Amino acid sequence: MTEVIYTVKETAELLKCNKNYVYSLLRKGHLKCLKLGQLKIPAYEIDDFLRRNIGKDFSNQDHVTELVFNEGGELNENQTS
User: Fold this and answer.
1) Tens digits of per-residue pLDDT, 54-80?
2) Are 5 and 40 in contact (CB under 8 A)?
3) Is the N or C terminus of the chain more exposed, i.e. has fewer CB atoms within 10 Å?
4) Contact between residue 75 and residue 69 where contact means Cβ atoms under 8 Å apart
5) What is the dihedral of CA 44, 61, 81, 70, to 10 degrees?
6) pLDDT band at residue 1 under the 50/70/90 scheme
7) 30-47, pLDDT tens digit by residue?
8) pLDDT score at 58
C-alpha cells in the first residue's frame, strides 16, 4: 500500500535532508502539515511542494530564489535575485 501521510522524519528521508530542515520548511510556511499526535505531512503536500518549487534555491528559506545557470550549464553560485 502506498503511504498517504508521513512523519517529519519520513519526510526528511524523502527530501534527502534532516528533520530540522523540514521543521524549518513547516515554520516558514513552505510546507504544510497537520497534527495527529505528532506532526504529519500528507503525501500530496510533499508532491505539491516539489512541483511548486522546482528550479528554486532554498539555501536561504527566508529568501528563496530561482536557480540560475551560466552559459556553460553550471550553477551560478553568486546569484543576486
Assistant:
1) 999 999 999 999 999 988 888 887 655
2) yes
3) N
4) yes
5) -70
6) low
7) 999 999 999 999 999 999
8) 96
**Residue 45, C-beta contacts closer than 8 angstroms, at least 6 positions apart:** 31, 32, 33
Distance CA(15)–CA(19), nearest Å, equals: 10
Instruction: Say what the alpha-carbon torsion angle 62, 75, 53, 23 is, to the nearest 10 degrees.
Output: -50
Report the distance separating Cα 72 and Cα 10, nearest Å.
36
The letter for the amino acid at 72 is: G
Q: How much is the average pLDDT of 13-32?
A: 98
Residue 76 phi/psi, 5-degree rounding, is -80, 105
Tallying the residues shown for the chain, one arrives at 81
Backbone angles phi, psi at 71, to 5 degrees: -60, -25
